[in-house]
Write a structure and sequence with these properties.
- By secondary structure, this protein is mainly alpha-helical.
- The protein is built from 7 helices and no strands.
- Helices cover 63% and strands 0% of the residues.
- It is globular.
């Protein structure tokens, strides 16, 4: 299997189990509801001070998505957390896996998600949007679990994270493309979609 595909746009990936309640959530526009719930699932709890407009929370500044339901902002936030998760878990794979194919895939994820996040950071800065600086709480729990594994057990778990995450990311991109508003972000999503599909196929072929 070739690992030479290169990303020209953004490429998010995210671990399995990050969806909201599906396309038919009760209340509101069903697709928009899904995207919002996905972002909320990936985010930490909103600090009370930020909601009330009070003093800065001792945990530090929050991302824009934690105080906004704007569709484009939420998309950028979910993609950011996905990129950060891919980079983090793939760095771990380079530390823990001795399988050449797994290691090649992990290095590809690091390279391409780092490039994708740099592009996303630029778009966010141009729009005055502050993005998350770490994966979501549930993603960090998945990472913590991976740190407890080794050998074939680690490789299998890493593969599961990649397959599940890219399936979710592909669904999210397709959903966003159906009702997003920001033309530059929509162009990025269109560019990302076939690459994410390719990464999903490669992940499914991992040992």
């Amino acid at each position: 299997m070739s690992h030479e595909r290169r990303l020209n746009g953004g490429l998010p990936g995210s671990p399995a189990g990050l969806s909201g309640c599906g396309q038919f959530c009760p209340g509101g526009h069903p697709i928009k509801r899904t995207l919002i719930l996905s972002a909320l699932t990936l985010s930490l709890a909103l600090p009370t001070a930020a909601v009330a407009g009070g003093a800065a929370d001792p945990l530090g500044p929050v991302s824009t998505a934690q105080v906004s339901n704007d569709t484009d902002v939420l998309f950028m936030e979910v993609m950011t957390m996905s990129n950060l998760t891919e980079i983090q878990t793939s760095r771990l794979a380079l530390q823990k896996s001795s399988n050449a194919e797994v290691r090649a895939y992990a290095q590809q994820m690091i390279t391409e998600h780092t490039r994708a996040q740099a592009e996303l950071n630029t778009l966010a800065a141009q729009r005055g949007v502050r993005l998350a600086d770490k994966p979501g709480a549930d993603q960090r729990l998945l990472y913590n679990r991976l740190t407890t594994l080794s050998g074939a057990a680690f490789d299998a778990a890493y593969k599961n994270v990649q397959v599940g995450g890219h399936k979710m990311t592909l669904d999210l991109i397709q959903t966003y493309r159906s009702f997003g508003k920001d033309q530059a972000l929509l162009a990025m999503a269109a560019k990302m979609e076939p690459v994410v599909a390719g990464h999903l196929a490669e992940a499914q072929e991992l040992p």
